[in-house]
Specification:
This protein is α/β, with parallel strands linked by helices. The chain is built from 10 helices and 11 strands. It folds into 2 domains: 2-78 and 308-332, no CATH class; 84-185 and 202-300, 3-Layer(aba) Sandwich (Rossmann fold). Helix content is 42%, strand content 21%.
Length: 336
Amino acid sequence: MSFQAPFWLLLLLIVPVAVLVYVWAQGRRTKYAVRFTNLELLGTVVSDSPRWKRHVPPVLLLVALALLLTAIARPERTTQVPREQATVILVMDVSGSMNAEDVEPTRLVAAQEAATAFLGDIPEGFRVGIVSFSQYAAVALPPTHDRKLAEDALLRLRAEGGTAMGDAIQLALDAAEEPEQFGAQPTPEPSPADEGEGESNRPPSVVLLLSDGFNTAGESDPVRAAQRAAELGVKVFTVALGTPTGFVDVIDDNGRLQRVQVPPDERTLQTVAEITNAQFFSALSGDELTSVYEDLSSQIGHESEKREITWWFAGFAALFLVGSAGLSLAWFNRFP
């Protein structure tokens, strides 16, 4: 919880002062009772009721005072609200290592199935683009609202070649920032009421990078590409797919079949996510990958927003005030 006007919280110092005054007043009341020496008459005047009752209304009154003083500072809390618009770029590794079968049936097929399910989980107002990368990075689909086009683009992916991870991140940022140059529909113009707000009108962009290997090709370094993403305010969520013992069979230059181990590069993916203030995931199986995408759809589909809750404090303060007054009238026939 935070406050829009925290300096008003200094008024809460009134509460301990009020407590001290109340304790002092109770002490004077006791001394006065001792001075009243006619005990028989005192017994007829003072009603027979538990001593604790007389403290309840003032305590409730002090709680109400504390709540009201807190309300003046305009408290607010952070809550998750659904996003209406965003651009999500799926960056899919299609290097030869994605043919490894340590993730059944293969890493690539598992990635395609999980990404397809992800498309059905995110809000319809989101635009989705796809960037694939192996030896080179390419825009497989410019950002679009058409989920069928996105599904078809995912199914067309084939695994072969190296891993140009850095180039893929750079291309994803270009596709997110300037989608029209890749053939996407223009971003809707802001309404007249929103004009003058500049870049704040632009729907946020998010990159989801799935990879299973080390950066072995391309011109850009993944870390430098992540730094550019951070400068643009684009989060790059990363997923390392595969097990450390995964392997593929390839034919070497001599025409012989050679088994090559292809562990994912978790360290680089973690660094990319950290630089962009995003999150890193590791998936060792198809089920884990599906779970990761479900988590991502929940995170991307919502955004943090601060909402004022002054009325909560004011409302509870009113309840305590009513309680204090009601008990005082019921027990002592007077207001506290």
